[in-house]
Amino acid sequence: MTTKVFIDGEAGTTGLQIRDRLIRRDDITLVQIDPDLRKDAEARKAAFAEADVAILCLPDAAAKEAVELSKDLDVRIIDASTAHRVNPDWAYGLPELSAAQEAQIKSARYVANCGCYATGAIVLLAPLVRAGLIPADAAISVNAISGYTGGGKGLIAEYESGEAPDAFLYATGMAHKHLPEMMKFAGLTAKPIFVPSVGNFAQGMAVSIPLHLSQLPGDLTMAQVHAALAEAYAGAAHVKVADLADQDSRIDPTALNGTNDLMVHVRGDAEDGRIVLVAVLDNLGKGASGAAVQNLDLMIDA
Ligand SMILES: NC(=O)C1=CN([C@@H]2O[C@H](COP(=O)(O)OP(=O)(O)OC[C@H]3O[C@@H](n4cnc5c(N)ncnc54)[C@H](OP(=O)(O)O)[C@@H]3O)[C@@H](O)[C@H]2O)C=CC1
Ligand SMILES: CC(=O)N[C@@H](CCC(=O)OP(=O)(O)O)C(=O)O
């Protein structure tokens, strides 16, 4: 028997990539609706009724509406939007957080896929906060660069028409939508500074967190930070920690494009303790569509 999956928002950036990942699988049957009816509530409700799992690749408001439409049906939901990520009734879709998190995803009716930048920041911070190496109230800064597909159809159109600048920083008002999930799942009590940016490349991202080890408790060393991260992700299929000996000064945000992997780098000056943690991932891979498929596989035990 195959698992029936409905991708609501299949024509969008995230939806298309999920479709590409599922279409050739013989354990999955895609439930499809007439593209002209993609915003028709009745047609979508019929698709929810037919599906075992629905993956929502929609703006937040439409994702909330989809949950309402399907609430009395048996369908399980993975939501790629920001709408439900800090909702306690939803499992946060980052199985690498802990064995308990993975178990929660496996049995959940509702799974919220993580934000792309949040995935990078949480993977870097959560094990260090949990181990007490970074205090929950530490003043943390997160910087990031993303390819323009991270902004969906709207930003893609700006770049493809040549209107957008080669690069820009944004969210300088300190209110980016990924901050609540970053805090909740990294275990931070103080709001970080988060300054993302976009460059003139389609896909890929690097999320970086600079640290002055001298401002953290204890006599923490760069090697200890690396060891804590390497231990946390030792068994993870999709999160790797680069060797500490790799201290190349450049990091390419597109290095993992086309994969569902995330690479953690710990770089800096081990002598004076000014270091930077960097997560490289494909915003459409581990940052969105690949993560949705990883969660789907956990839910259906594939
Ligand atoms: N792009 C990325 O890197 C990431 C995106 N996400 C999230 O995934 C979700 C989708 O993003 P993305 O794929 O980039 O967005 P897009 O703008 O590329 O696609 C959204 C799709 O949803 C459709 N849609 C809009 N409103 C409705 C509605 N009421 N009913 C049914 N369909 C509707 C759109 O239709 P139409 O074809 O008419 O425009 C479009 O096809 C968002 O919540 C986003 O935040 C999450 C992680 C990363
Ligand atoms: C480049 C760009 O605009 N990125 C988007 C985040 C990517 C995304 O879609 O975020 P979710 O994972 O929360 O859906 C932004 O900053 O709003």
Automatic annotation (TrEMBL):
Residues 4-105 form the Semialdehyde dehydrogenase NAD-binding domain. The keyword Cytoplasm applies. Pathway: Amino-acid biosynthesis; L-arginine biosynthesis; N(2)-acetyl-L-ornithine from L-glutamate: step 3/4. The active site is at C116. GO terms for cellular component: cytoplasm. Keywords: Amino-acid biosynthesis, Arginine biosynthesis, Cytoplasm, NADP, Oxidoreductase. InterPro entries: AGPR (IPR050085), AGPR_dimerisation_dom (IPR058924), AGPR_type-2 (IPR010136), NAD(P)-bd_dom_sf (IPR036291), Semialdehyde_DH_NAD-bd (IPR000534). It comes from the Bacteria. It catalyses: N-acetyl-L-glutamate 5-semialdehyde + phosphate + NADP(+) = N-acetyl-L-glutamyl 5-phosphate + NADPH + H(+). One of its GO terms (molecular function) is NAD binding. The keyword Transmembrane helix does not apply. Gene3D superfamilies: Dihydrodipicolinate Reductase, domain 2, NAD(P)-binding Rossmann-like Domain. Its EC number is 1.2.1.38. One of its GO terms (biological process) is L-arginine biosynthetic process. It is found in: Cytoplasm. Belongs to the NAGSA dehydrogenase family. Type 2 subfamily. PANTHER family: N-ACETYL-GAMMA-GLUTAMYL-PHOSPHATE REDUCTASE, CHLOROPLASTIC-RELATED, N-ACETYL-GAMMA-GLUTAMYL-PHOSPHATE REDUCTASE, CHLOROPLASTIC-RELATED-RELATED. Catalyzes the NADPH-dependent reduction of N-acetyl-5-glutamyl phosphate to yield N-acetyl-L-glutamate 5-semialdehyde. This is N-acetyl-gamma-glutamyl-phosphate reductase. It comes from Thalassovita autumnalis.
